[in-house]
Amino acid sequence: MSDEADRDLLAAEYVLGVLEGEDRDTAIRLLADDPDFARAVEAWQQRLTPLALQVAPVTPPADLWQRIAARTEQTATIVPLHRRVRFWQATTAGALAIAASLAAFIVLHQPAPTRVAVLSPLAGGAAPVLMAIAEQNGTLVVRPTAQIAVPADKDLELWQLPQGATRPQSLGVLPASGKTLDVALAQNTQLLVSLEPKGGSPTGQPTGPVLYGGLLTTPRG
Amino acid sequence: MPTSSATSDDTEMLLRRCVSGDRGAFRLLYDRWGNRLYGIALRITREAALAADATQDAFVQIWQQAHRFDPGRGSAEGWLIGIVRYRALDIIRRRSREVPGYEAEDREDDAPNALTRLLNTAEGAALHRCLGELEEDRRRLVVLAFVDGLSHSELAERMSVPLGTIKSWIRRSLISLRGCLAS
């Protein structure tokens, strides 16, 4: 049997739910690492879903919604959410590009910027996608270092979260091309970017996922 | 016939609204799907507390990952059901690893009746036809696995058949289903 056919059967067994131990671990690892395997799993899921729809619905415990609401409200504010990066396309060259553009920026803008932040996906793993430079005169310059794709019905919003604060302060909507603004920044602060409805958060707090963040620090050397 | 293209679109729309942080849409999604996902989780875990945990985890994941749902790759129902099934399976597989000798309580096997309900949707009717092409005991294996969450070794024990035989029966049934559903 070909590898591909073998993989498809492994996907089928995974969806069916029969795998145990090492085979199951292998399938879970492939699901994360191998897009073809993930597609095979989705295809099998679609094939077999009608069987699950045969199971009679049952009323869940009365407090279940409260439990779900409590857990999702926490994550709606500031806790980094995993794998929201699909809207963002951080190129693998991002890490190199950021070093190069940062160097150019420092050379072009004398005197040296007071503080710099590199904003990376909070889910970890991917290259930085934005950098921010806070100059002494209160100008904050935010520039992308990788291409950022924002859904047409969404906007990015920039926030600062001063050390010790529990709620971020909005610094306004952030175009994917970056922006320059005049702003009073706290001495020790993180910059965060969340995905919001068009026009920015309606509540004054992040309502969508907090995608990127970084600490504003004085660059060394 | 095809029941629910309207319902399916609605579910898709609710998921899209969840992506933008719409709590009201999330609540509607729970109202619409909570009973069904809990029923599926209960069937697999066979314990109310475990089923509630699986359903809770599933909804948290749905809220956090709604942006990952891609209508080009499958239906919203399939996506939601997939999430709750894997959460429920995780819980019982972990449980059987951590609690030696743990065995969920057996339930009556009502699979044969359940299958007739497949005829309610077009996709279900195709699956029903293709399951019908399997021998009866093979069909039962597929249902016990998918609906009741039995693993290879649990199926072997239940059917009093060697593990290797079960594995090969399942593989052949899956190959047959794949071919039949593609035709």
Give the N-terminus to C-terminus distance of chain A in angstroms. Answer: 59 Å
Global outline of chain B: globular
Helix count, DSSP H or I runs of 4 or more residues of chain B: 9
The residue-averaged pLDDT of chain A reads: 78
Look at the helices and sheets of chain B and give the structural class: mainly alpha
Q: Can you write the helix and strand succession of chain B as a string?
A: HHHHHHHHH
Descriptive notes:
The complex is a heterodimer of chains A (221) and B (183). Chain A is α+β, with helices and mostly antiparallel strands and 221 residues long. Chain A is 33% helix and 24% strand. Chain A has five helices and eight strands, in the order H-H-H-H-H-E-E-E-E-E-E-E-E. Chain A has helices spanning 3-16, 21-33, 35-52, 64-77, 94-108, and strands at 115-121, 130-134, 139-144, 154-162, 169-174, 179-182, 189-197, 210-215. In chain A, strands 5-4-7-8-1-2-3-6 form an eight-stranded antiparallel sheet, with no helix packed on it. The longest helix of chain A has 18 residues, at 35-52. Chain A is elongated. Chain B is mainly α and 183 residues long. Chain B is 74% helix and 0% strand. Chain B contains nine helices and no strands. Chain B has helices at 5-19, 23-45, 48-65, 76-98, 111-116, 122-132, 136-146, 152-159, 163-182. In chain B, helix 8 (152-159) packs across helix 9. The two termini of chain B are 20 Å apart. Classes of the chains: A alpha+beta (221), B mainly alpha (183).
Task: Name the descriptors.
heterodimer, A: 221 residues, alpha+beta, 8-stranded antiparallel beta sheet, 5 helices, B: 183 residues, mainly alpha, 74% helix, 0% strand, globular, disordered N terminus
The gist of it:
The complex is a heterodimer of chains A (221) and B (183). Chain A is α+β, with helices and mostly antiparallel strands and 221 residues long.
